[in-house]
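Entry for the shared binder. Reason: the reviewer on the internal report wants the predicted structure included alongside the sequence.
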Amino acid sequence: MPIANPLGNLFGKSPIKPIQEHMAVAHQAVELLSPFFDAVKADDWEAAATVQQRIGELENRADELKKEIRLHLPKSLFLPVPRTDLLELLSVQDRLANRAKDIAGIMLGREMSIPKAIETDMQEFVATTIATSAQALKAIKELSELLETGFSGREISMIAKLIEELDRLEHLTDQLQISVRSNLFEVEKDLPPVDVMFLYRVIEWVGDVADRAQKVGSRLQLLLAR
């Protein structure tokens, strides 16, 4: 009876497949920030707890995948891209899920409400942050095609355009973050100081998700430049 090859099961014919799977899981955690903030807006903490638990499960799954990839990523000199670059890309991706978990955890733990004055801007800010993560996933998915075409000019051009859009979305989140912080500043004197402090932290962390998604694109650019 043939013995199953665990490395083959994990990586198949390409070292890129598990990296893509990891990014998909990390993005799923980020994507759940949308229903989480919806539950917060509705003051439905039972629903928020359910979503937060799912985000935690996805973050744990991303950690498991990260460990498996680190343990079993081939050390062969014949990898299509440098092993160290793939491991760095993996670390950047993993931080997306970590930060999504941080956001949901602190907001649920304190049952933080979003002031009406920033509610609309905050919703757009979160949605654009999620779109930035989705764009990073889209770019990662193209890596398989890039390897299959031997880093052809057409495929490199396509990924470059995806990264350009990723940069645009991240810049937009920066602008939205400034707007949200400005609007919060206008009303913070009417809010409990401790609540204000934690609101600023959440705003920073939501922006951090977009920053980390953009860094996925930066790592991809380094791969293309090799």
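Summary line for the report: The CA atoms of residues 167 and 214 lie 6 Å apart.
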